[in-house]
């Protein structure tokens, strides 16, 4: 009955608009010319009255460098010498305190503590602790804002990644990039507002898979789903014209298809039809914009050298970082990179060394490249995974080898640019690296802070679906004002 009622209301409103000479056909044409324009929103639109952005933003764009698998903070950024001193000793029950463990270690008789075999030192004016695994990152710590007190609700990969990307452990909610696209719209109508790049690291070849729903639009219009760019000749699937079709013929076909879809929308009042029209038009424009954007041949040698030799290898993390900068230059609103391979349950020393080498130089290069082009000031860069790793060894601890299990209670992320304090360390864990002792930051707090930097009050930015108003941060989340510049 709800759908029937909605259909009747749409039709009644349509006839009213027709009488004023502002029929749905005109609205459909508006969505073709500018599918993100607030001018096509009606009083019934979920965005009506929100006046986004709510206040002046510090950042206009986001690059989210998601490290899938859960990087070990204890090998990278959270220096805990006590773990080396107590190597092999059992984790004190007073520290563990009966907290939830995964099924992979809950049956262990002992939880032998193990510190990092890699050397740590303090760098920059901020005196940030960084491992020798991240030498390039160490050089730019005064550009970074480290959050060493992240914590999450999820303990396994799929719900934990879903939680970070959508604010819920259950699938079906819009991703953070889709929320940004929906609320703030496009800065460049020739490229998608929300783009996704994937890479697979050398740390662990058989690693956790990623699903396209992580960058899905959920209950928002399909116009706001992330568009995946793939390496190779066809970065976006089904973008090329069929063999034998000219550009003029393609334009004529789209015009006719748009007219048919507009007629169908007039008949059924389905807003997804207008989204389809806008997607066809975007695909047409992308036929020209995508090849130019993906072509790095004109990048000077010193830039390629800055990102590292992998920057010319399509599909690598370094290549994707370089593409992220090119997309940001063209005012793409939200660029999401996923880098797989951080799930080191065993053979951690060897695996994490290879994994860190994948990302260290390119991450630092991306941040400094944005800065030298004047883009870092209004581009927010976020680096981190879905949870951290335990301070004890999963399985047998040997003289040279060990693994670490999932640990949601504390881990490290960092941010740069876009209104966060540079050269700043926030939060603190205990000497065992197991619990947070100062300034905890929850996943919803991080999401609220990211939205705040983009000019959005996360408590007011909602979407009504199935009778309930949803938001990215669900019913919690606080802006971490102390990390804002």
Characterise the protein shown here.
By secondary structure, the protein is α/β, with parallel strands linked by helices. The chain has a single domain (45-240, 311-483), classed as Alkaline Phosphatase, subunit A, CATH 3.40.720. Helix content is 34%, strand content 15%. The chain contains 14 helices and 17 strands. It has helices at residues 2-19, 24-33, 73-76, 81-85, 93-96, 135-139, 157-166, 176-184, 247-268, 271-294, 301-307, 317-329, 348-372, 443-453, and strands at residues 61-68, 120-123, 128-131, 144-151, 194-200, 227-229, 334-340, 379-384, 388-389, 406-407, 411-416, 424-426, 428-429, 436-438, 441-442, 463-465, 468-470. A hairpin with a 2-residue loop joins strand 16 (463-465) and strand 17. Helix 2 runs antiparallel to helix 9 and helix 9 runs antiparallel to helix 10. The longest helix has 25 residues, at 348-372. It is globular, with a radius of gyration of 24 Å. The termini are far apart. Residues 13-45 have low confidence and may be disordered.
